[in-house]
Write a structure and sequence with these properties.
Blueprint lengths: L12 E12 L2 E12 L3 E5 L6 H9 L6 E6 L2 E2 L5 H7 L1 E3 L12 H7 L9 H5 L5 H18 L15 H14 L4 E5 L7 H16 L4 E5 L3 H7 L2 E6 L2 E6 L1 H6 L1 H6 L11
Parallel strand pairs: 3-8, 3-9, 6-7, 7-8
Antiparallel strand pairs: 1-2, 1-4, 4-5, 9-10
Helix pairs in contact: 3-6
Pfam family, one: BCA_ABC_TP_C
GO molecular function, one term: ATP hydrolysis activity
Keywords: ATP-binding, Nucleotide-binding, Transport
Length: about 270
């Protein structure tokens, strides 16, 4: 699955990371990392294990607070805001390790992603038929649209914990989509999947970006997928940015070959 080369992202940055550093005691997880992501872009972050990729997503989503630096979402500084507040402002997130409610249905897991958008209060709750019911039905229509898009209608009533790993990853993507994010953060969305599941997930991510217009920031180890569907790629090594550019530029970068692809400098052709 490849992206449509005729679809070009807007130049306006919807996410900006400015000189972000993160430390845990004496360990430096990130050091002075800066980059921006344009509206409508599919931006991938790659690097060896321990390079700081998930730490960067945790800083963006609000799970970690950087030791220094700034994070801006659509021009607003969100560095000190909670994850819930960032979700309200338009930031969605999936996790490397599944974080679904196993005892709840697929449909209800996805509805959790709409929770921050609910406007009903104690009064409208008491007067359910005057407003809250209409609001709930509107949110359920959005959930049904996501279910149809991800082709999970047959399992909408199934308990999430009973599903295969690949389907659970799809449900987690659905819940992140339900936030209606400006930017969606995907942490290894294809990890642990077989080839068919990876192809399906790659197609959904491209369609999410191109048809739904969502800006995507993705961590993924499958280099073939990354190079096929990304507009730009950033490479981290030991918490530092060592390359950023078009997929073909990054693949040709000697430092990336040494650090990430395992190609020894002595093996490179002059």
């Amino acid at each position: 699955m490849s992206r449509d080369p005729s679809i070009v992202p807007d130049r306006h940055p919807v996410l900006e990371v400015r000189d972000v550093s993160l430390g845990f005691g004496g360990v430096r997880a990130l050091t002075g990392v800066s980059f921006s992501v344009a509206k409508g872009e599919l931006f991938s972050i790659i690097g060896p294990n321990g390079a700081g990729k998930t730490s960067m997503l945790n800083c963006i989503s609000g799970r970690y607070r950087p030791s220094s630096g700034q994070i801006l979402l659509d021009g607003s500084d969100v560095t000190g805001l909670s994850p819930n507040r960032r979700a309200t402002l338009g930031l969605g997130r999936t996790f490397q390790n599944l974080a679904l409610f196993g005892h709840m249905s697929v449909q209800d897991n996805i509805m959790v992603g709409r929770h921050h958008l609910l406007k009903n209060n104690a009064l409208t709750g008491a007067l359910y038929w005057l407003g809250a019911r209409r609001e709930e039905l509107a949110h359920r229509r959005v959930v049904e649209e996501i279910i149809d898009f991800l082709e999970i209608a047959p399992i909408r009533k199934a308990q999430a914990g009973t599903l295969s790993y690949g389907l659970r990853k799809r449900v987690e993507l659905a819940r992140a989509m339900a936030v209606s994010p400006k930017v969606i953060l995907l942490d290894e969305p294809m990890a642990g999947m077989n080839l068919e599941e990876k192809e399906d997930m790659a197609r959904f991510i491209v369609d999410l970006n191109e048809e739904w217009g969502m800006t995507v920031v993705m961590i993924e180890h499958d280099m073939g997928v990354v190079m096929d569907i990304s507009h730009r790629v950033m490479v981290l090594e030991f918490g530092c940015k060592i390359a950023l550019g078009l997929p073909e530029e990054v693949m040709a970068n000697d430092r990336v070959k040494v650090a990430y692809l395992g190609i020894d400098e002595d093996e490179q052709v002059a």
